[in-house]
Design brief:
The protein has 657 residues and is α+β, with helices and mostly antiparallel strands. It contains eleven helices and 27 strands.
Length: 657
């Protein structure tokens, strides 16, 4: 820039109001705000420190909020920024493994004891004796608690092993041959031919029958009255009139009791994430610890709560009619819900109201302390549980939770899951109101009970399976059509079932970005996860196949074929022509070929046509021979009779004062 240009530039700056000024100085007046071009290091330092302090406080608040610090803490605890480390485990710490707690009592709405007269043959004589059965009818658990801690991971192969038919060498002393009348003790029955001279007495005389026929004919052909003729009730057998079915009587009715009601579901956005409230009514006098244990409280939680209630609620017994209001929330140490708050209400016969007696709440330290009564509500007549639609458990975990709540052993729960695993996606979430019904024999001296019947209701579909044994001594479970729940092929043939990433049908190819038919389903899993044969068959193809990478094809009977792609490696010892059985390992998950990540590409063909592996109807693996049809129908009728019987009266021992 030459001199002329510099002068012109200076003139322009001066015309716009800019002019030369003195340099910045730090010689500002002490204690006053700096003016003009003065600087103050004190003011600059204060501004920077204010910003840093604000950032630290906001960061601490965000950190605390994301660590789940949302429990009931006192003001003193809320102000503490640091706490000394303690080696003692809190009551809500589920990381310490202990023996699983089993509930020992149950309300009659969930578990009932029924009695029936069973007929059996002993030393050539027909004997009739009373036999108790256990009947469970309950909605599936909508929230996982400590009861389902330590359950095995979902594994289709383990389920296959759990659903094998019961061998003839097992203890099969199970009898459901229900006798038509009730007896006391044991009664021997002798069958004899009816003598030809025996004439049963008439319930209606010939004259009464003739009068009835005449009245019907006259009313039909010779009367102008449009009303139909009425039956002469007095001429019928006494057993009919005893029912009260008299002319003009109203319809039969009744009162529904001990029914668990699930409230209407709400949108996930409206549900309190990770929390659920359960309201229970104590039907019979029971101890507090038993009521807590069957609702997911551990031994440590129960002891802590009883110690906290010692001064305000010293009684360890809950009377009939007492109400428990339990608020559950997420645990910090496990993927379960733990009790955040417990409130006890006792029924006041004078005012016919439920009076609050005590409340314990969980603090940030993991301890239970006395708390204020929660907001008042109008208690429903039936037990209810707040359903968190955003956090409902899977069918697999819900059955485990429900089974342990009702004291089923793990082997029985595994068999129940296996019986339905071929028709039901066990990784799918349940819906509010899904339920299960179970019938078992009463436990023997060693505590073993035999499973007789299971019905699983998911949505509007109910699946029933009945226990039945054939002449070869093998016992299995069959649906009303005489078919087992086992399928000819499994739909997710890899360990853990995998995670569904892509369904069957047309899609945009993730690599070529063109619309193509996806000929199978993609089940994502970690590299090296074992892959199983979906069914018995013969290996047809066992090598690299272009975009499929390492591929295996298995030919099954009746025109069925399955294919497995993108394997990382094969199993040694197999080749085309090798025969494999259902559940046998044939390879391992990988990402070979045209793949964007480790997964199994699984296909099913029927007579050369590709079908959707997850929705195609597959044939059952075992069907009851036709020769057992009549006997199986009789067994179903007897079990259905046991499921509809009234429960036996329950005698509750009075607690000592």
């Amino acid at each position: 820039m030459n001199a002329a240009q510099r002068n012109r530039h200076a003139a322009l700056l001066k015309a716009t109001g800019f002019e030369d000024g003195p340099a910045l100085t730090v010689q500002s007046t002490d204690g006053e705000i700096p003016h003009g071009r003065e600087l103050s290091f004190a003011w600059l330092t204060g501004t920077v420190m204010t910003g840093l302090t604000s950032v630290l406080l906001m960061g601490a608040a965000l950190y605390v909020s994301f660590q789940g610090q949302d429990t009931f803490s006192t003001a003193y605890e809320a102000l503490q920024l640091s706490r000394p480390e303690t080696e003692a485990l809190t009551p809500t710490d589920l990381s310490a493994k202990s023996s699983r707690l089993r509930p020992v009592t149950a309300t009659r709405s969930d578990l009932q004891i029924i009695e029936a007269s069973i007929r059996e043959t002993v030393d050539g004589r027909d004997m009739i004796r009373n036999q108790p059965f256990m009947r469970i009818s309950a909605t599936l658990a909508t929230a996982p608690t400590s009861l389902s801690e330590g359950i095995p991971d979902y594994d289709p192969v383990a389920i296959l092993n759990a659903t094998q038919p019961i061998a003839a060498t097992a203890n099969l002393d199970v009898n459901t041959d229900v006798y038509g009348a009730e007896v006391e003790g044991e009664v021997a029955v002798k069958l004899a031919a009816m003598p030809m001279t025996f004439v049963p007495p008439r319930a209606i005389s010939d004259q009464s029958a003739a009068e009835y026929v005449r009245s019907v004919v006259e009313a039909t052909f010779f009367s102008d009255d449009a009303a139909p003729p009425t039956l002469a009730y007095a001429a019928l057998a006494p057993s009919v009139t005893e029912l009260g079915l008299l002319p003009g009587a109203g319809p039969l009715g009744g009162i529904v009791e001990n029914v668990t009601v699930v409230p209407q579901t709400t949108q996930a956005a409206d549900a309190a994430l990770g929390r659920a409230e359960r309201i229970l009514t104590i039907k019979e006098r029971t101890s507090l610890d038993e009521a807590l244990r069957r609702n997911g409280f551990t031994d440590a939680m129960t002891a802590a709560i009883e110690g906290t209630l010692e001064n305000v609620f010293p009684s360890t017994e809950l009377p009939a009619g007492a109400r428990l209001r339990i608020l559950f929330g997420p645990s910090r140490t496990s993927n379960t819900l733990i009790p955040y708050r417990l409130s006890i209400y006792l029924h006041d016969d004078g005012s016919d109201l439920d009076v609050h007696r005590a409340t314990v709440a969980l603090t940030d330290k993991g301890q239970y302390v006395l708390g204020l009564a929660p907001a008042e509500i109008e208690f429903p007549e039936e037990d209810t549980e707040e359903v968190n639609v955003a956090n409902l458990p899977s069918v697999y975990r819900s059955i485990w939770e429900t089974g342990r709540k009702h004291d089923l052993d793990d082997a029985t729960i595994e068999r129940i899951i296996g019986m339905f695993a071929y028709d039901v996606d066990m990784t799918k979430k349940i819906q509010a109101g899904d339920s299960i019904e179970i019938l078992e024999t009463a436990p023997d001296a060693e505590g073993r009970a035999e499973l007789l019947y299971v019905a699983l209701t998911l949505g509007s579909t109910t699946r029933q399976l009945y226990r039945f044994g054939t002449e070869d001594g093998v016992v299995d479970f069959y649906d009303p059509d005489g078919e087992t729940g086992k399928r000819f092929l499994t739909r997710r043939p890899l360990e853990g079932g995998g995670t569904l990433r892509s369904r069957f049908g047309y899609r945009i190819h993730p690599i070529f970005k063109t619309r193509r038919l996806h000929t199978g389903v993609d089940l994502a899993a970690r590299s090296g996860t074992p892959i199983y044969a979906a069914g018995d068959g013969v290996i047809k193809y066992y090598k690299w196949a272009s975009g499929y990478g390492n591929k295996v094809e298995i030919e099954h009977v009746n025109g069925y074929e399955t294919a497995y792609g993108h394997m990382s490696r094969y199993v040694d010892g197999l080749e085309p022509g090798s025969r494999v059985r259902q559940g046998q390992i044939i390879g391992y998950v990988g990402s070979t070929g045209q793949s964007t990540g480790p997964h199994l590409h699984f296909e099913i063909k029927i007579n050369g046509n590709l079908v959707d592996p997850l929705s195609v109807k597959l044939p059952k693996d075992n069907v009851l021979p036709q020769q057992y049809e009549a006997q199986f129908q009789q067994t179903m009728a007897q079990i259905n009779d046991l499921m509809t019987r009234e429960p036996a009266p329950v005698t509750v021992a009075q607690a000592n004062p």
